[in-house]
Design brief:
364 residues, alpha/beta, Rossmann fold, 4-stranded parallel β-sheet, 8 helices
Length: 364
């Protein structure tokens, strides 16, 4: 006798991976809770999270959208201005620290500093630099928009029943004197990089734990007597576009994704209301032999997105819609740092908006 003799087939690589089609993995996930059409669901995170939002909306689920586009803005341009992408107009949130900072700002226990970056006479909100492709006309306009944004976020955090967050990166840039965390480095979209003002940081496990603990404390404060929502974590499968960590980008990607995956697992293990969905494993599965990535081995293909979303629906949703592979009209890919083109032009519904694709242009 040995302890492996009576384990299920899902515990063995040959039966669970090597001999199973990557298009239909079985028993890859066991959910803690369901998401119903009556749940108020909010979503945030790195670029890959945009697909979850889109698929839920498409199938009639109650995805909060508290910062709506003005009626005169054509729907073709919503995502370029940060509308109809997430549950509020916060853009991509790549790190735990960035999310924690934002929730603490809503609570009133943290005030970000040095968030007005300038480029060509226009003003950009450094904490969501892509939501105004041409920037604001004045610093006053920027702060007025941010004030409205924070109030909408307060409504979202108070009312949501389910919060879906995609962990994207461990690398970030911070303001030295205040500790303000940015989604992208100064000088990439706007602003100017000065070593005396900004520093690169690559978060460690203890940093993630501390940031998430602060997040939960602030969320409890905002919600008052309302219980903490069900939290669903995913890890983005999209590799880094570039790294400032002083190592090969392959190693930097492995470090970042491995740390985030371990952290998500730890949270799921110790919190009854937190669960993890394995989109990262589904896309990077060795049995797929890279078919879920485009030729650059970084962008997730439309088929990869559909496979992950199909399994997501099968795992969590109390009402299972008819999700079939290749049934979507979207012709798109996902890139953790894609769509650096800042020109106002038509974007396909399936495009995702990511700031750090611009980093690709700096490679020589």
């Amino acid at each position: 006798m040995n302890p492996y003799q009576n384990l299920p087939r899902s515990a063995f690589w040959r039966h669970a991976v090597a001999e199973v089609s990557p298009l239909s993995l079985r028993e890859v996930h066991s959910k803690k809770f369901e998401i119903s059409k009556t749940d108020s669901t909010a979503a945030a995170g790195s670029c890959f999270a945009q697909h979850i939002t889109r698929y839920l909306k498409r199938h009639g689920y109650n995805v909060l959208d508290l910062e709506r586009a003005p009626p005169w803005l054509n729907i073709e341009y919503h995502s370029q201005y940060g509308f109809s992408t997430y549950s509020a107009r916060y853009g991509n949130i790549y790190t735990v620290q960035q999310l924690s900072q934002l929730i603490r700002e809503v609570e009133g226990t943290f005030k970000p500093q040095n968030i007005c970056w300038v480029k060509d006479g226009r003003f950009y909100d450094a904490l969501r630099p892509s939501i105004e492709p041409e920037g604001f006309e004045s610093e006053e306009e920027l702060y007025l928009h941010r004030k409205v944004h924070i109030e909408k976020l307060r409504q979202m955090l108070f009312s949501m029943d389910v919060f879906i967050f995609t962990l994207g990166l461990t690398e970030a840039w911070i303001h030295n004197s205040s500790g303000t965390v940015y989604p992208t480095a100064p000088g990439v979209i706007a602003g100017d990089y000065k070593a005396s003002e900004y520093s690169f940081i690559n978060y460690e496990f203890a940093d993630l734990e501390h940031g998430f603990k602060e997040l939960l404390v602030s969320l409890n404060s905002i919600r008052g007597e309302r219980p903490i929502p069900r939290i669903l974590l995913t890890v983005s499968p999209v590799p880094l576009t570039a790294t400032a960590a002083g190592m090969h980008v392959l190693q930097a990607t492995a470090y970042s994704k491995g740390l985030l995956r371990a952290f998500a697992g730890q949270l799921t293990k110790h919190h009854k209301n937190i669960d993890y969905f394995p989109s990262y494993e589904i896309i990077t599965n060795q049995a797929a032999r890279g078919i879920f990535f485009e030729k650059n081995m970084r962008n997730v293909s439309s088929e990869g997105v559909e496979v992950a979303m199909k399994m997501f629906f099968e795992s969590y949703l109390s009402h299972l819609p008819d999700v079939k592979l290749n049934s979507s009209n979207d012709n798109h890919t996902t890139n953790e740092h894609s769509n650096g083109n800042r020109n106002l032009s038509h974007k396909d519904e399936g495009d995702v908006q990511c700031e750090d694709a611009i980093l690709e242009a700096f490679g020589k």
